[in-house]
């Protein structure tokens, strides 16, 4: 298994990072202006419209037989993958590196950088009609879900990358580290059987994890593979499209998700390169060595050393006057034993 070196990955991220995108609130207006500079090397098409008539675009590049479909922001308030994709677009538009040439020779890549522009504008998980697109793969009541399925069936990819953000509550099992990146090879049915498709998906994840472990050892987790009958990844996997879930999570003091953006970029690029150079996707067992995600964190924990009282708080993000505002709210949690705060405040005596 041949991995891109950390030096190579860091060099290209620093050189090609899309600096106009920053923070967690990324809307269609933020990315629309960026399409122009990529039209020379990408084929850019309007796929359709959202429920509120915002455009949804695809970007296509490459001439290879291995087809890969990647989409981001099907949850509107999960934008880390979107930022990483535009960093990647800059690489493809500007780099003459052999690694990128190899990917484009062996693969055809189709990107949907923002599937849910209405949810992105409102900074919500759901679309304008309160539909969770990631739980709409069966009924497909949302326009956005119909568009994604149409692209899937017409493009017929060998691999899919489903890009999400995960909450700050997740840590890496057996450590006191947040899960900065988590992976999942979705199950196809309730028994979570290891089908050939899942094994191939796991194989690509192993390559991505091996790469990240060289840079952020013990900050990578494995998302639960519980089967969700209406979920996008589970259903796409069931239909025969190998679907890799990437959950971009927290890194210490990285609430704007700029450091996790960087490692999301590394994971995607390593995954694409691995698919490009590989003809054997049968080795997968190292997937199960990736530690599980574990719900062990709160954003802030207050500890009173005198009274032994412990209180937990989480940031809640809201759009107020066209600004993203993060407000700490107390969590009603009975048992805080073993929990960790990303920030811990210890008091002695009574809190006034």
Structure characterization notes:
The protein is of the alpha/beta class and 352 residues long. The protein has 2 domains: 6-294, 3-Layer(aba) Sandwich (Aminopeptidase); 297-347, no CATH class. It is built from 9 helices and 14 strands. It has helices at residues 6-16, 28-32, 80-94, 98-106, 117-122, 143-155, 196-213, 232-238, 258-277; strands at 43-49, 55-62, 66-72, 107-112, 159-165, 170-172, 181-184, 220-222, 242-248, 293-295, 297-304, 310-320, 323-331, 340-347. Strands 1-2-4-3-5-9-7-8 form an 8-stranded mixed sheet, sandwiched between helices. A hairpin with a 5-residue loop joins strand 1 and strand 2. The radius of gyration is 20 Å and the shape is globular. The model has no long low-confidence stretch (mean pLDDT 96).
Mean pLDDT comes to 96
Name the quaternary structure.
single chain
The chain-level structural class is alpha/beta
CATH topology tier name of the largest domain = Aminopeptidase
Radius of gyration: 20 Å
Strand order of the largest sheet: 1-2-4-3-5-9-7-8
Overall domain count: 2
- Number of E strands: 14
Largest sheet at a glance?
Answer: 8 strands, mixed
Order of helices and strands: HHEEEHHEHHEEEHEHEHEEEEE
Strand content: 25-35%
